[in-house]
Design brief:
Length: 196
């Protein structure tokens, strides 16, 4: 059983541990004290501390529900209840909950919904541009980035290229030719392609 949850305005849930002050925003300036600043009690979008404050808020709540953070992947939390196992994968404000028991998954979703404003997007079919297909008989997932790859090819004007089973022959020698200089007339385009 799996489910995708989206936590609304996640960054606004975290309480600030450090002292952070901001100018009074336009429209909310106190006319008696226009030069005073506000001390933040909660994180705001745009603060460099906000992602960390939100992550620690969520971490503390998951631990209070009996989850343990993986020692290998800090965004993965697990919980065992007898023979049942539950996993929560966190990506900023998106949570994937997967478990061996519908009751355990439902309880965890209700526990999260009691603390955070969230949207249950139902069974996991896609996350971060990755299509997810579950084979319930074989008990495994198929992951595909076909749409992401097609979008990237279109973005860089390479969608006219023919399809091939392997992107390149693995026997090709990639040693640079002595004296070779790459044409970096559009270095930003190159960086963007490599970063995709």
């Amino acid at each position: 059983v799996d489910s995708l949850l989206d936590i609304s305005t996640a960054f606004l849930n975290g309480a600030m541990a450090d002292d952070v002050y901001v100018r009074q925003p336009p429209g909310y300036v106190d006319p008696r004290h226009p030069n005073k600043v506000w001390k933040l009690n909660k994180a705001l979008y745009g603060l460099k501390q906000s992602p960390r404050v939100w992550y620690m808020e969520l971490h503390d709540h998951l631990v209070s529900l009996g989850f343990q953070r993986s020692g290998h992947e800090s965004c993965l939390y697990t919980r065992r209840d007898g023979s049942d196992e539950l996993m929560v994968a966190v990506y900023v404000d998106d949570l994937v909950i997967s478990g061996s028991s519908q009751a355990l998954v439902s309880y965890s979703k209700q526990s999260l919904a009691s603390k955070y404003d969230l949207t249950d997007q139902g069974e996991l079919t896609q996350i971060l541009g990755i299509k997810v297909v579950r084979d319930k008989r074989g008990k495994f997932f198929y992951l595909s980035q076909t749409s992401f790859i097609k979008d990237a090819l279109t973005k860089f004007g390479l969608d006219y290229l023919p399809v091939c089973a392997t992107p390149m022959d693995h026997t090709v020698d990639l040693t640079p030719t002595p004296g070779f200089k790459a044409d970096l007339s559009d270095a930003n385009m190159y960086r963007s392609m490599v970063g995709t």
